[in-house]
Amino acid sequence: MGQDTLEKNGSGTINAIREVRVETALTKFAMVTPDDGSSRLAIRIGPNITPEGDVCFFVGDKVKYTVTTGAAGELPGAMVRAVFL
Questions:
Q1: Which residues pair with 12 in a beta bridge?
Q2: What CATH number is attached to the domain comprising 29?
Q3: Is 49 strand, coil or helix?
Q4: Is 1 within the bounds of a domain?
Q5: How many distinct structural domains can be found in the chain?
Q6: What is the CA 25 to chain-centroid distance, rounded?
Q7: pTM exceeds 0.90 for this model
Q8: CA quadruple 57, 16, 77, 49: dihedral, nearest 10
Q9: Is 56 inside a domain boundary?
Q10: Cα separation values, 82 from 11, 45, 78, Å
Q11: Tell me: the pLDDT tens digits for 16-65?
Q12: Rounded CA gap, 28 and 43, in Å?
């Protein structure tokens, strides 16, 4: 707690969605290709309302995300914030 964190916002396109077993639960991850040309990100996703009213993400959806990094040696995390057109 109280450690500095750095957040970077970005946007990109989902190009794959897979379910991965994390301990005893299945969790969905999306591979996102950032619009700025940097390396693809694996982002944990959950249900979300798309512009069409669907309750999930699809390959090809444009998304906004935030990458959060913490103290030295701490792995970065990313979270999908919203789907946009």
A1: 34, 63
A2: 2.40.50.140
A3: strand
A4: no
A5: 1
A6: 18
A7: no
A8: 0
A9: yes
A10: 10, 10, 13
A11: 988 888 788 888 888 999 999 888 888 887 766 666 766 678 889 888 88
A12: 8
